[in-house]
Amino acid sequence: MKAIQLHYPPEWAHCYGCGYLNPMGLHLQTYWNRERKESRTAFTPSPHHTAIPGFVYGGLLASLVDCHATATAAAAKADAEGLDLEKTPLRFVTASLKVDYLKPTPLGPELVLVGRAREVKGRKVVVEAEVYAGEALTVRGEAVLVQITEGFGG
Ligand SMILES: CCCCCCCCCCCCCCCC(=O)SCCNC(=O)CCNC(=O)[C@H](O)C(C)(C)COP(=O)(O)OP(=O)(O)OC[C@H]1O[C@@H](n2cnc3c(N)ncnc32)[C@H](O)[C@@H]1OP(=O)(O)O
């Protein structure tokens, strides 16, 4: 299965969090499970992602939630409308991002993010995401993603 971000056309592939053309980026790759209506990604923070020694920087965790939510929105909307992302790219940007840090996230183990669309309505998708370190749920996020159809920032 191909990651959702690998469907992005080159002009949308420079994102710091998930763009495959950003050499300094995190290269997050999100996968959509059609049966479970759920997205997943994994990321292993590096030592320079430290907040307090031994624990992951919260801004990085917010970035992971952000990019995972963006891809989840595209997949959920495509799923809801029976679209093929490869043929019909859906461009979502983040309108709102909320992150709750439930407990410190240990630096070292691989982190797993799970995402679900709580609402798919018009151009808006509301995504809930969870970050797990092993069995421990350490972060819960919620994002509002809005689909853009033309240029961005005009
Ligand atoms: C697979 C193939 C893909 C192909 C290709 C994909 C490319 C995949 C991108 C890659 C890249 C990743 C990117 C990472 C995520 C970023 O980092 S994106 C960068 C950070 N985000 C930004 O800079 C966004 C800046 N903001 C804006 O441009 C505009 O405010 C927005 C978000 C486009 C919304 O403006 P608008 O189009 O005028 O929206 P508007 O009609 O007012 O609202 C639409 C709906 O959203 C709601 N809404 C709008 N703003 C908010 C808000 N702040 N809070 C709550 N709700 C809101 C509205 O209430 C409305 O809801 P309904 O009334 O329909 O229920």
TrEMBL record:
Domain Thioesterase: 54-135
The reaction(s) this protein catalyses: decanoyl-CoA + H2O = decanoate + CoA + H(+); (5Z,8Z,11Z,14Z)-eicosatetraenoyl-CoA + H2O = (5Z,8Z,11Z,14Z)-eicosatetraenoate + CoA + H(+); (9Z)-octadecenoyl-CoA + H2O = (9Z)-octadecenoate + CoA + H(+); tetradecanoyl-CoA + H2O = tetradecanoate + CoA + H(+)
Keywords: Apoptosis, Cell membrane, Cell projection, Cytoplasm, Fatty acid metabolism, Hydrolase, Lipid metabolism, Membrane, Transit peptide
Source domain of life: Bacteria
Major location category of this protein: membrane
Broad class of enzyme this protein falls into: hydrolase
A Pfam family matched in the record: 4HBT
Annotated InterPro entries: HotDog_dom_sf, THEM4/THEM5_acyl-CoA_thioest, Thioestr_dom
One GO BP: fatty acid metabolic process
Membrane topology, record value: Peripheral membrane protein
GO molecular function, one term: hydrolase activity
Signal peptide segment: none
Family statement drawn from the similarity comment of this UniProt entry: Belongs to the THEM4/THEM5 thioesterase family.
Protein's name in the database: Acyl-coenzyme A thioesterase THEM4
